[in-house]
């Protein structure tokens, strides 16, 4: 099942720039008005639904919200993040409709200041009666307009403002001469941000309540931790590309929640077994053995609990249209579990 995830709505409201407008009314959009007007704002009264273009990228697979047994997306290892903005193609008719509606929205609003109306007028004129004629509608079979699009969850971040190039025309067969024009790799990176991973609660023995100096076994069933993937696709205006991003669990890191504890192994990093499981399930008769993966608490939790942090590291790969593919940064996802640690009671005779 495909889920269409729209980008934040954008309003062409100033000069030759694009401004994001997504907040509930009143919303504000920065506008580029030229000299003497830097930092000015246009007030957008009411919702601008119907005056926007949305991303046509679709996502399928283990996407966020697609499974009741899943929890959240992972965090990239290192300082890499998926793109917060990119460029997509729109037909002359789509581009014209959005520009005209954006113009009408501001120009016919008595609450808009004169400089805002002037700005949207300049923008409209540039594409309708200026550098271009009627939005290049007579060239609809020859190319497309490429327009900046922003991640709806990060549209206010500095990274989302880097796609600041005004809408530009690209002839069919030519590659857009701009960074972050949508490609299979861009799609793979966007899919990365939408992968939903299962809950990372580990199975413990003893369960929930353990004893001081008693090894607690920890493991993850291979049936619960299998590869998950998301496919991102864009099929519009002659551009038909896709990419599948796959996450494979490779290790489990245990953090006991206290310095008064030891982990097995000492690093706390439990590797994936050959059969896809992590750790080893406890069985009767193994009480004197050292677990492959586990914890030994050295002090009682008193009347409270220790917060055991279990974090899975996922190895990320992708494949895309035309045989493209490769690696993306590993991702991590962790959850906390409450563990009660009690003193071993001795009986004096």
Overview of the structural elements:
Strand 2 and strand 3 form a beta hairpin. It is elongated and about 85 Å long. The protein is mainly β and 349 residues long. The protein is built from three helices and 21 strands. The strands form five sheets. Strands 1, 6, 7, 12, 14, 15, 17, 20 and 21 form a nine-stranded mixed β-sheet that branches.
**Given the structure, what is the number of helices?**
3
Report the C-alpha radius of gyration, rounded.
Answer: 27 Å
Task: Please count the beta strands (DSSP E, at least 2 residues each).
Answer: 21
| Spans of at least 5 consecutive residues with low confidence | 1-52, 66-71
Proportion of β residues? Answer: 35-45%
Quickly give the structural class.
mainly beta
- Report the order of strands and helices: EEEEEEEEHHEEHEEEEEEEEEEE
Distance between the termini: 68 Å
Query: Percentage of helical residues?
Result: 10-25%
Shape: elongated
The biggest sheet, with number of strands, parallel, antiparallel or mixed sense and barrel status, is: 9 strands, mixed
Instruction: Kindly report the average pLDDT value.
Output: 82
């Amino acid at each position: 099942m495909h889920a269409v995830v729209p980008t934040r709505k954008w309003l062409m409201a100033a000069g030759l720039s694009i401004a994001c407008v997504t907040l509930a009314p009143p919303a504000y959009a920065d506008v580029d008005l030229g000299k003497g007007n830097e930092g000015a704002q246009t007030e957008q009264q009411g919702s601008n639904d119907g005056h926007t273009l949305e991303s046509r990228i679709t996502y399928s697979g283990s996407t966020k919200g697609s499974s009741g047994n899943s929890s959240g997306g992972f965090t990239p290892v290192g300082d890499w993040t998926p793109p917060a903005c990119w460029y997509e193609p729109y037909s002359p008719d789509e581009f014209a409709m959005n520009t005209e509606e954006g113009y009408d929205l501001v120009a016919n609003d008595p609450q808009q200041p004169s400089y805002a109306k002037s700005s949207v007028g300049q923008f409209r004129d540039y594409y309708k009666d200026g550098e271009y004629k009627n939005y290049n509608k007579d060239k609809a079979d020859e190319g497309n307009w490429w327009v900046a699009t922003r991640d709806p969850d990060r549209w206010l971040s500095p990274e989302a403002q880097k796609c600041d190039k005004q809408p530009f025309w690209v002839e069919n067969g030519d590659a857009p001469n701009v960074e972050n024009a949508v490609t299979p790799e861009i799609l793979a990176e966007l899919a990365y941000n939408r992968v939903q991973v299962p809950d990372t609660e580990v199975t413990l023995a003893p369960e929930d309540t353990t004893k001081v100096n008693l090894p607690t076994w920890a493991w993850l069933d291979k049936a619960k931790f299998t590869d998950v993937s998301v496919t991102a696709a864009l099929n519009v205006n002659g551009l038909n590309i896709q990419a599948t991003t796959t996450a494979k669990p490779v290790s489990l890191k245990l953090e006991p929640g206290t310095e008064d504890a030891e982990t097995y192994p000492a690093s706390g990093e439990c590797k994936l077994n050959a059969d896809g499981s992590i750790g080893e399930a406890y069985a009767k008769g193994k009480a004197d053995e050292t677990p492959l993966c586990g914890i030994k608490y050295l002090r009682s939790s008193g009347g409270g609990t220790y917060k055991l942090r279990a974090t899975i590291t996922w190895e990320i790969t992708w494949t895309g249209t035309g045989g493209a593919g490769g690696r993306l940064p590993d991702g991590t996802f962790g959850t906390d579990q409450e563990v009660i640690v009690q003193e071993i009671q001795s009986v004096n005779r």
